[in-house]
Amino acid sequence: MIIRKVGALALLLAGAAAAATCGGHGTRKSLIVSTKWLADHMKDAKLVVLAMGEKADYDTEHIAGSRFIEYPSVGVKGASGLTLELPPMDKLVEVFSKLGVSNDSRVVVYRLKDTLTAAARIIMTLDAMGLGKNAALLDGNLATWKEEGRATSKDAPVVKPGKLTPCPQSDVITDLNFVKANLHQPGVRILDARDPKIYSGETARAGMPAGHIQGAGNVYWDLLVDAKTGKLKPVAEMQAKFRAAGVKPGDRVVTYCFIGQQASALYLFSRYLGYDTRLYDGSWDEWSKHPELPTEPAASAAEKK
What is the residue-wise DSSP string for 232-269? Predict the structure, then answer.
């Protein structure tokens, strides 16, 4: 009887410890880390560095000690038929625990090349799992790291599985019904993360109609990143883009794109700027499959303001 009580107490304490390091979101101080910060913390026992990109690029060269994460593991074609959806929570636990992630890990994701939207998708996924406060994107990519003379390797590290208990967050991903109900709701600003030419309807993605969700603003995620350095632009410039798209202080921001990947980058940047943010994961892929839902080109949206 005593042994059973001790065992039950141990499980209770373990659950409490996990809960203490689960939930909440990152802030401007935590969501983006510099190469210097990462270099200074590479020997931290709880640090997990994840490389996003092509496996061949990882095998050629990567930040020493970093682990490679397969992108399909955080974005699958689900039962609804949408191109990209968040996998079930138990599958995500399996993926990240194998990479050595525990509830108290500090996870930094970096790009092997130009895969910022995919890297941001990992941050968003960790946020949805309740690990957002300890997840960050490296400001820059592998090329940035190398230019500064920092250590790289061809060897994959031996990874000890992590102990991970998620606490799924209800304020990360939203659905079609929420977007439909809040198209013109004060205090909610829906943002299209795609190229302005796509947003305006000038061009379209094969297999999808042109245009955008009625009333949505446009903040092209790529314009928030310096094309030469791969680093984020100054906060003031980023905020100006949001203001120009109609985002007001205190607004809840909802991001979308074609399938939810570019919107993941805009989600990350919006959280970084301090906005209460949601990702509409169904995005244009889902919305455009419903002909009864309102869409428009950018010109008509401007005329209605």
Answer: BPPHHHHHHHHHHTT--TTPEEEEE-SSSSHHHHHHHH
pTM metric for this prediction: 0.90
Do the domains spanning 23-153 and 173-303 agree at the CATH topology level? yes
- Phi, psi angle pair for 210, to nearest 5°: -80, 165
Q: What is the pLDDT of residues 166-185, one digit of tens each?
A: 999 999 999 999 999 999 99
Helix (H) or strand (E) holding 36: helix 35-41
Contact 189, 246 (CB under 8 A): yes
Token pair 């959280």 in the structure block, residue: 271
Domain covering 173-303, topology: Oxidized Rhodanese; domain 1 (3.40.250)
Q: Which of 221, 100, 227 is nearest to 158 (CA)?
A: 100
Mind giving me the DSSP string for 76-124?
B--TT--S-BPPPHHHHHHHHHHTT--TT-EEEEEESSS-HHHHHHHHH
**Gap between the Cα atoms of 73 and 77, Å rounded:** 11
Domain assignments of the chain as residue spans, ordered by start: 23-153, 173-303
CA dist., res. 237 & res. 243, Å (int)? 10
The first and second tokens of residue 1, run together, are 């009887």
DSSP 33: E
Residue 150 near residue 41, CB atoms below 8 Å? no
Q: Are 67 and 156 in contact (CB under 8 A)?
A: yes
The sign of the torsion formed by the CA atoms of 58, 61, 63, 64 equals positive
28 exposure class (CB count in 10 Å sphere: 0-12, 13-18, 19+): exposed
Indicate the helix (H) or strand (E) that contains 295.
Answer: strand 295-296
At the topology level, CATH places domain 23-153 in Oxidized Rhodanese; domain 1 (3.40.250)
pLDDT tens profile 190-226: 999 999 999 999 999 988 999 999 999 999 999 999 9
Rounded Cα–Cα distance for residues 134 and 25 (Å): 8
